[in-house]
């Protein structure tokens, strides 16, 4: 199993919850969290067909300034951005 697939199996279930949770907790001050959630949902859907996920990961990276953690972030937001950054890095390493 590839590194990306291992991370996907480990992180996707948590990210389903985390990406939604950060929209509720931080959406007013960080509207990009809504787009991050939507992009993550697109990644999940496209992953089942082995489609190219590069555009979604790239857009997510741009929205979050390279997955930079805002000063007012909660631990869930920190973990979300860390997981997404790791997934993007592993995905790119395999492409």
Write the layout of secondary structure elements.
Elements: H1 3-26, H2 32-47, H3 54-63, H4 75-94
Helix pairs in contact: 1-2, 1-4, 2-3, 3-4
Main attributes of the structure:
95 residues; mainly alpha; 4 helices; globular; Iron-sulfur cluster repair di-iron protein, ric
Characterization of this structure:
It comes from Ligilactobacillus pabuli. This is Iron-sulfur cluster repair di-iron protein, ric. The chain has 95 residues and is mainly alpha-helical. The chain contains four helices and no strands. The chain has one domain (3-94). It has helices at 3-26, 32-47, 54-63, 75-94. α1 (3-26) runs antiparallel to α2, α1 (3-26) packs antiparallel against α4 and α3 runs antiparallel to α4 (75-94). The chain is globular, with a radius of gyration of 12 Å.
Distance between the termini: 15 Å
Q: What structural class do the secondary elements suggest?
A: mainly alpha
The biggest beta sheet reads: none
| Strand runs, count | 0
- Gyration radius, rounded: 12 Å
How many structural domains does the protein architecture include? 1
Overall geometry: globular
| Helix share bin | over 70%
**Number of alpha- plus pi-helical segments:** 4
Portion of residues in beta strands equals under 5%
Instruction: Give unreliable regions as ranges.
Output: none
**SSE arrangement, N to C:** HHHH
User: What is the averaged pLDDT score?
Assistant: 95
């Amino acid at each position: 199993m590839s590194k990306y697939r291992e991370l996907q199996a480990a992180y996707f279930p948590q990210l389903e919850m985390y990406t939604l949770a950060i929209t509720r907790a931080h959406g007013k001050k960080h509207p990009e969290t809504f787009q991050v959630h939507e992009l993550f949902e697109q990644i999940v859907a496209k992953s089942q067909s082995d489609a190219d996920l590069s555009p979604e990961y790239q857009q997510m990276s741009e929205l979050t300034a390279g997955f930079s953690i805002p000063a007012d972030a909660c631990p869930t937001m920190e973990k979300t951005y860390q997981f997404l950054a790791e997934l993007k890095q592993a995905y790119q390493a395999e492409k």
